[in-house]
């Protein structure tokens, strides 16, 4: 067994039976052969950190993150910002990659370089889906990167958070003896002593400034207020699975395989839709040819698009309230004003309804049932009811003794249609 594998097994908590753990130990003895087998089975390895699964690129961010690639990564594992940035740009610009998954299992790493990489990921939002998946740890610098993606998906046992910046200051010694440094008098802060109040204050201010940038970026990336990050995002601690989601630190639970399958299915659905809605035009078709083909093959869709476009260009009835009000008054149909302004219709549609109402009012006047106008207009959107109401109103006007159902207000007379209907129900 290699030292790297033994160290990993000894340092991790395991929820396994003793026999199962022994099996893992035996597998770990072949740890350098296993990754290649997994890559060959599950997808094509495109570069050091990237595996391609059909249209989905999985960019692995594992181990301690440092700024530059070096031999430490090859021997002990880990990830460099330098390599991550290069590979991220490659898959982002790859036309065959339709989704990017940042597969994160990292305790964090150096602050240097993390801000630039996170900003690069955040700026790429909208180009193609970018999802951060955390199956183990996504802490500190790794969580910073995760928040830059469109979405954070967690395994039930994944741990995220640890927002903050830590620094360690070591007093130099040589052969168990203190080594003293002399600093130019013009540069008293070049080697501040953290054991002094002034030195501690200088180092603390530097850490706080870096932490402020970290917190501000997390708030922006997760679309929350800075105060929410300070109070709800564990204050430098971590949260696991559903608890992290409840706090707003991630979006949903899931697994890496299901996430990859989800985006593979989206591609198949898009391909199916493109086949279903293929436009039959030649390769040298001009713009008019394409428009003609669309109108011929999808007439209803094109008609709807044109209608919607016209509606967007027209003012609403509410926006033209002054003109609509005047038109209602001129047509002597003021009772329509409230319903026209409250409805979600265009100015043109409102004016047409006023013209229709004016025509109905004139027809009622010609038939001698002008007083029935409001009753008839109440059923104008239901043709069956409208015809029935007109017939009833016309019959009521011709019935004998209609004077018993006429109301007089000063010199004005109006037929009481409600009284007529009541009399009919009683057989009078």
Q: What report would you give on this structure?
A:
Belongs to the peptidase S49 family. It comes from Zooshikella ganghwensis. Keywords: Hydrolase, Protease, Serine protease. Pfam families: Peptidase_S49 (PF01343). With 428 residues, the chain is an alpha/beta fold. The protein has three domains: 33-265, 2-enoyl-CoA Hydratase, Chain A, domain 1, CATH 3.90.226.10; 279-313, no CATH class; 321-425, no CATH class. It has helices at 3-11, 18-28, 34-42, 71-76, 81-92, 114-123, 141-147, 197-221, 226-232, 241-246, 256-276, 287-297, 299-313, 321-330, 337-342, 347-366, 373-377, 383-398, 417-425; strands at residues 44-45, 50-53, 56-62, 65-66, 79-80, 99-106, 130-139, 151-154, 159-161, 173-174, 177-178, 238-240, 252-253, 406-409, 412-415. The strands form four sheets. Strands 1, 2, 3, 6, 7, 8, 9, 12 and 13 form a nine-stranded mixed β-sheet that branches. Strands 4-5 form a two-stranded parallel ribbon. Strand 1 (44-45) and strand 2 (50-53) form a beta hairpin. Helix 5 (81-92) runs parallel beside helix 6, helix 8 (197-221) crosses helix 9 (226-232) and helix 12 crosses helix 13 (299-313). It is elongated, with a radius of gyration of 37 Å.
């Amino acid at each position: 067994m290699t030292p790297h594998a033994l160290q990993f097994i000894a340092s991790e908590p395991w929820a396994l039976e003793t026999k199962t753990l022994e099996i893992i130990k035996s597998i770990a003895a072949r740890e350098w052969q296993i990754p290649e087998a997994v890559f060959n089975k599950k997808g094509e390895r495109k570069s050091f950190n990237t595996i391609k699964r059909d249209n989905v690129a999985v960019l692995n961010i594992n181990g301690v993150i440092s700024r530059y690639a070096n031999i430490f990564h090859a021997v002990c594992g880990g990830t460099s910002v330098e390599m991550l940035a290069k590979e991220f740009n490659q898959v982002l610009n790859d036309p065959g990659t339709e989704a990017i998954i940042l597969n994160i299992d990292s305790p964090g790493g150096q602050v240097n370089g993390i801000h630039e990489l996170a900003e690069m990921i955040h700026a790429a939002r909208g180009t193609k889906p970018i999802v951060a998946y955390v199956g183990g740890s996504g802490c500190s610098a790794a969580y910073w990167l995760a928040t830059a993606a469109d979405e954070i998906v967690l395994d039930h046992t994944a741990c995220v958070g640890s927002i903050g910046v830590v620094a360690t200051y070591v007093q130099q010694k040589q052969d168990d003896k203190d080594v003293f440094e002399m600093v130019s008098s013009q540069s008293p802060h070049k080697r501040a002593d953290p054991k002094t109040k002034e030195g501690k204050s200088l180092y603390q201010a530097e850490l706080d400034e870096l932490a402020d940038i970290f917190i501000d970026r997390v708030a922006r990336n997760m679309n929350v207020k800075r105060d929410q990050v300070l109070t709800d995002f564990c204050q430098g601690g971590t949260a696991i699975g559903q608890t992290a989601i409840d706090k707003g630190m991630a979006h949903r639970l899931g697994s890496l395989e299901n996430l990859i399958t989800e985006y593979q299915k989206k591609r198949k659905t898009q391909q199916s839709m493109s086949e279903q809605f293929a436009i039959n035009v030649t390769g040298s078709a001009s713009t008019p040819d394409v428009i003609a083909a669309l109108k011929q093959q999808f007439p209803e869709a094109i008609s709807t698009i044109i209608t919607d476009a016209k509606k967007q260009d027209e003012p609403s009835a509410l926006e033209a309230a002054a003109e609509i009000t005047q038109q209602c008054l001129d047509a002597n149909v003021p009772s329509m004003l409230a319903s026209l302004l409250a409805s979600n219709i265009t100015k043109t549609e409102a004016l047409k309804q006023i013209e229709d109402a004016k025509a109905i009012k004139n027809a009622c006047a010609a038939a001698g049932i002008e007083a029935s106008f409001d009753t008839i207009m109440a059923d104008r959107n239901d043709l069956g009811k409208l015809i029935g109401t007109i017939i009833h109103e016309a019959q009521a006007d011709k019935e004998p003794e209609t004077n018993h159902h006429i109301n007089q207000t000063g010199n004005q007379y109006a037929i009481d249609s409600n009284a007529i209907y009541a009399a009919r129900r009683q057989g009078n």
